[in-house]
Each structure stands twice: as structure tokens, then as C-alpha cells.
């Protein structure tokens, strides 16, 4: 039994939902049956559905406390290639304030109640009892990881865990709304056929978006560049025909943010891609 698998089983026994991460601290990609969310998603994901895939196939939504699943064939294969163990804080009733810099730690010590702390590579995780929505970039080098997110397991830490305070909840309330550019229909060169975009009447756009989401999800390094290249590819194919909607852009942004990109980075990458293409 690998060390990662042993740790995962110990955590699951204590009620902490776990999942394996591969190199780059990213989840394992979808299996063929689940590519592009064709399976309908896990029941606890935003997308409705009841995927029966038993693999670690849906990032944070795959996290489980079931030892039979953790020890199953698909998971065994993942553990053999895992670089670390992660967990779903919200599923464990926790919120993690991820402080990724010494300045962020200094700010937290001044403005947030003391609680259990876990050292990380570059900073600290502050763990609070209670759940809330997750958000990246609530302050410089400060992320919130709770519901619909995962965090690396780095040990139990030190100190007494404090109930989730209003000061942490307020970080999301006071966070400026992302200024994502609206995906407005463009009229630069609408294809023929009565002026109707052919993508509206075929699965071409849907397949393209599913492939784009998969490319972002499976990026193993240089996530910023990978996201930009995907945005550039989508816009080069669909940016001038008027078929992209705000919902389509939201799907791409969600895939990027699941990889750790902030809303600001997504907005910048989208704007830069449009500028590169003259849109």
C-alpha cells in the first residue's frame, strides 16, 4: 500500500473526503465516458446528473470517504501515479484560508481570529470550522477553499480550530465582482446561409467547448499559458460568427478557475486573446 493511499484511508476514516492529485497539484482528468461532462456530472456538482463512474474523475466532486471506492481499481491506478493527497474542505465541514505569501500571513494575523494553521510550501493554510463558497484572489495571495474546491493535505497543523468568523465570510462579500467581458455576438464575418451561424444547428460548437474544457482540465503545467491558448483557439474558431454566448464563456472560465486561475487571470486571458485576433 502506497503512503498516499494509507494517508487517504486514514483521513476517510475520520470523515474527510479525499482525492488523489497528479503532478502539478491538479486532479486526474475525466475518463472517456465522462469527457466534456457527457456523463451528466456527479450529483453534488452544479451540473445535474448521477454519474456512476467510480474513478477519481471529477476533481473535488470525486472526493469520497468510502474506503471501497478509495481502494477500487480506478483509484488504485490513480494512487500509483499520484503526487499528493487532497481533500474537499467543504465536505469535511471546513474552510481553508490559503495564505500564499508572507505578507498575506502578516495580514491574516492582524485581521483574522487565530485558528489551526498548517504550513505550506510558500505560506500557510488557516483552517476554520464551518463552510462557505470558495473564491480565489479575495485579497493578494489569499484564496478561500471550502465548498466546490479541493486543498492539498499537508498534515494536521497546530493550534485550536476556531468557528468560521464573519471576517472570513466578508472577504467574499466585499470582493469586487469579476469584470468578465460579455461574449457578445460579433458581426465581423457571419457565414452564409441566411445569416444564421451554422454552429447553432450542429454539435460543432458543443464538441469544441467540451474539448476546450478538457484541454484546460488536463493541463499539467504552465496553466496560465494553457488557458490563454485554449481561449485563443475557441475565439479563432467561433469569435466571429456570433455563436458564443455568456454561458459558453462561463463554462471556460469555470474550467480555468477549477485549475486555480483567478477571475482576473481569466478576464485578462480572454481580453488578450480577443486583442490578438482583432476582436
Keywords:
four-stranded antiparallel β-sheet; 279 residues; alpha+beta
Overview of the molecule:
With 279 residues, the protein is of the alpha+beta class. The protein has helices at residues 3-13, 67-70, 73-81, 102-111, 166-173, 204-217, 223-238, 246-258, 263-276; strands spanning 18-22, 26-27, 84-87, 94-99, 116-119, 124-129, 135-139, 142-145, 151-152, 162-163. Strands 4, 5, 6, 7, 8 and 10 form a six-stranded mixed beta sheet that branches. A hairpin with a 3-residue loop joins strand 1 (18-22) and strand 2 (26-27). Helix 6 packs antiparallel against helix 7 (223-238), helix 6 (204-217) packs parallel to helix 8 (246-258) and helix 7 (223-238) crosses helix 9. The protein is globular and about 60 Å long.
Q: Would you count the extended β strands for me?
A: 10
Which class of secondary structure composition applies to the elements?
A: alpha+beta
Instruction: Calculate the mean pLDDT score and round it.
Output: 83
Q: What is the CA-CA span between the terminal residues?
A: 53 Å
* Main β-sheet description: 6 strands, mixed
Binned strand content: 5-15%
Round the Cα radius of gyration to an integer and report it. Answer: 20 Å
Instruction: Give the count of helical stretches.
Output: 9
Helix content: 25-40%
What's the helix-strand series? HEEHHEEHEEEEEEHHHHH
Uncertain runs are 176-195
Shape: globular
